[in-house]
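Would you mind giving me a polypeptide sequence along with per-residue structure tokens?
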Amino acid sequence: MPNRFSERALRESQAFGVRQVPVWRPLGWLARGWHDLWQAPVASLAQGLVMAVFGALLLVLAHDRFWLLSGAFSGFLLLAPVMATGLYALSRDIDRNLPVGLSTVWLAWHPRDRRLIVFGFLLAIAGTGWVLCSAALVTGFAPEPIVTPRDFLRLVVLNDQSQLFEIWLGLGALLAAPVFASSVVAIPALLDQPADRLGVYGAVLTSWRVVLEHPAPMALWAALLMGLTTLGLATALLGLIVIVPWLGHASWHAYRDLVRHRSD
């Protein structure tokens, strides 16, 4: 059975070509994403608001358990690609010169097949695993209990007698890198391609091919995603209202720029 799945995924992925792009192309994706944001401002900003409210809910639930909060926000970022599905749908329909609005987002969240649900479930597992690992690492090795952000800063980030912060960052990067490689174009591809042309494993394999064939542009893209998301978090989450839809629309253009079906 595993061989059958891997052979099918390989066939599906090989049906797609990977376009070559220059190192600085991610800046173009941001420009096109910004354009799409203001082509459908209500639907786009509404999704950004939902993400910001969800982040605020995490703050409320875990404000007195910062060891959990740090892992929860990291897991939240891992799930962001599938949570941006509605934004990909908006950009797709803008490309097709179709009318867009909240109904576009609604339909994207009610797909006719279950591939996006499966992918979201897999990302949720990865996010939950990171939350548990982060919590275990910080609570198990911090010299004192960590309750507030100040505790985390003092006992983990600025503690020069421990490498806990470096280990925590390294562990997070170890998980985030394969998740990024697996999802960077996979979810837009699943939204764009019919089920008989592309399955979950084929989409993941295609996404890995994109990253491996474009290490420099994709490293820049990852840095831009992380930097702008961090900026949104640093503005008391308010910046996420604009930054989340901006990056979601830009991610659609990254997919369209990098991947093409050989029959198209």
In short: The two ends are 31 Å apart (CA to CA). Strands lie at 16-18, 259-261. The first strand starts at residue 16 and ends at 18. Residues 21-258 form one domain.
